[in-house]
Amino acid sequence: MKQFSSSNVFIYVRRFAGRRNDTTMTNLTKLPPILEDLRNHSAEEMAELRTLLSVGASMRPDPRRPGFFEVSGMDRVYYIFKYPNGSKILLLGVLERDPAAEMVACSCPAA
Fold it and tell me: Which domain holds residue 63?
């Protein structure tokens, strides 16, 4: 089974018909993961996170907790838990991004 970045899964099926081998490719659409909100966030925040996940936004893993990630949006950072099988994503928290703090972090190297 091969998986691509889109929500399609291609399965190669080999059938034995007499002496010749027939290989066919079947396209199955994969359902997006279920997004569950644990803290009653706004519908706008949920819609932005759903959009970020659907376009494949980068996720920064939490080094201390396996399965926990930070997803960066335009003006928010989402803290999520992703099930290992990819069937469900839990939204745990939303933080507002501070552009001034990001510029200071980029301009001042760590001591």
Answer: 32-107
Structure-block tokens of residue 85: 């099988």
Tokens of 74: 């335009």
Between the alpha carbon of residue 31 and those of residues 34, 45, 51, the distances in Å are 9, 21, 14
In this structure, are residues 48 and 76 in contact, taking their beta carbons and an 8 Å threshold? yes
> How does pLDDT run across 60-100, given as a tens digit for each residue?
999 899 999 999 888 899 999 999 888 899 999 998 887 77
Instruction: For residue 76, give both structure tokens.
Output: 């928010």
DSSP state of 106: H
CB 14 within 8 A of CB 23: yes
Q: Are 1 and 37 contained in the same domain?
A: no
Q: How far apart are the C-alpha atoms of 37 and 92, rounded to whole Å?
A: 7
Q: What is the pTM of this model?
A: 0.64
Tell me how far apart the alpha carbons of residues 35 and 37 are, in angstroms, rounded to a whole number: 7
